[in-house]
Amino acid sequence: MWWVKLVVLLLLAAVVVSLFRGLTALVKGQGREGKTARALTWRVIFSTAVLGFLFLSMYMGWLKPHDVNPTTRGGVPIEQKTTAE
Q1: Once rounded to an integer, what is the mean pLDDT over residues 63-80?
Q2: HEC string for 20-80
Q3: Residue partners of 82: CB distance under 8 A and separation at least 6
Q4: Residue 2 has what pLDDT?
Q5: Collapsing DSSP states into helix, strand and coil, what is residue 16?
Q6: Radius of gyration of the chain, Cα coordinates, nearest whole angstrom
Q7: With bands split at pLDDT 50, 70 and 90, how would you rate the model's confidence at 84?
Q8: Rounded to a whole number, what is the distance in angstroms from the first to the last CA of the chain?
Q9: Which of the residues 48, 56, 60, 75 has the least number of beta carbons within 10 Å of its own beta carbon?
Q10: Contact (Cβ atoms closer than 8 angstroms) between residue 35 and residue 25
Q11: Helix 35-60 and helix 2-27, axial crossing angle in degrees, nearest 10
């Protein structure tokens, strides 16, 4: 599903853009007008959207998380070497 990756990348790019917008507003001294807070609020919204979209993608079956257990591979136990003490 290439479009899921594209959506996630676009949302992450929006997070970075809003973060730098907040930084430039802060550096230019426009923080009193609320531009910094508004840009950082959008960053939080985009970050939440990324997380929500990832959870939705896993629920719908568009993304399948891989196994992170080091003792199994695909649900099948890996033979472990035992050290003789």
Answers
A1: 73
A2: HHHHHHHHCCCHHHCHHHHHHHHHHHHHHHHHHHHHHHHHHCCCCCCCCCCCEECCEECCC
A3: none
A4: 87
A5: helix
A6: 21
A7: low
A8: 49
A9: 75
A10: yes
A11: 170
Residue type, 20: F
pLDDT, tens digit, 9 for 90 and up, residues 11-69: 999 999 999 998 888 888 866 678 888 888 999 999 999 999 999 999 999 988 776 66
Task: Check: CB of residue 44 under 8 Å from CB of residue 52.
Answer: no
For the entire predicted model, the pTM comes to 0.69
Instruction: Say which DSSP state 82 is in.
Output: P
Q: Tokens for 39, please give them.
A: 């840009």
